[in-house]
């Protein structure tokens, strides 16, 4: 029995020029291209966030408004002499702390002391003249009294002389008296009349003298007042030779020098008193929600960004452009809208560290919390 022979497998050979079928390829992104896209998206998002934050739009809106157009303000007092002369002494130095009443400079006062002495002498002369005139008035009043007494006595003598003459005339007419007696009484009556007239004239003269003295009294009183005013003015000018600090503060550069000739009104130094405040110029849109009494704070550039707290004290009634010398006229030509600035005054809280270093003119960055308490 013959075993079954295996069936040989048939192998077909592939022609040499036949290429294998192409395999299906899948797309694979490059790593560098993916990172670029992610970075671009992140950059766009960051830019949009920056824009929203800059314009304080949601979700970056805040109740705090700020500006770097702000400065520390304070009063600056000009120290000037009120009289002319040579500077005798300057006992202060640059940037010195000053208390009210401290002597800042002394001017040579010899001329002004002489003026005081001369004015005092003139006052004494005027006072003496007035006193002499008062005595003259009293004497004229006494002369009037004496003249009136003489008039009274002369009138009495005249009455007696009239009576004697009348009696002598009657006796002479009756033949009982002599003619010589009548003549004697007539003469006596004439003398009495003359005495009365003389006394009346004396009284008139005394009254005229009293009137003249009274008129002179007014002029002499005016002379006394004028001399007294001149003495007071001389004493004031003498006091002006010592220039003192009007209040507490700190000095600027002391430009005056010993021996320098100065005139009244010369600017020799500046005194900066202690009161300070901040003027912050906010844009119109920012100032809409600002009210007095709201909490504020600021950072000072000159003090390495030191922070100080304060309170909104008041708001300017108009934009800063309204107070400029040259105001803008938009009635003609092309118009470009420019946001205006509204000045806000910030009162600085007391008892803060470093307050003594704040100086007028320092630049600050001011902030106001518009959601804080405000004064109605």
UniProtKB/TrEMBL annotation:
UniProt keywords, alphabetically: Coiled coil, Membrane, Transmembrane, Transmembrane helix
Q: Does the keyword Transmembrane helix apply?
A: yes
Q: Which parts of the chain span the membrane according to its record?
A: 34-55
Domain (CusB-like beta-barrel) spans 277-319
Which InterPro entries has this protein been placed in?
A: Beta-barrel_RND_2 (IPR058792), MdtA-like_BSH (IPR058625), MFP (IPR050739)
Q: Which residues form a coiled coil?
A: 144-171, 210-237
Question: Which parts of the sequence are annotated with region: Disordered?
Answer: 1-25, 357-376
Pfam families on file = Beta-barrel_RND_2, BSH_RND
Q: Which residues form the Multidrug resistance protein MdtA-like barrel-sandwich hybrid domain?
A: 76-272
Protein name, please? HlyD family secretion protein
| Species | Rhizobium deserti
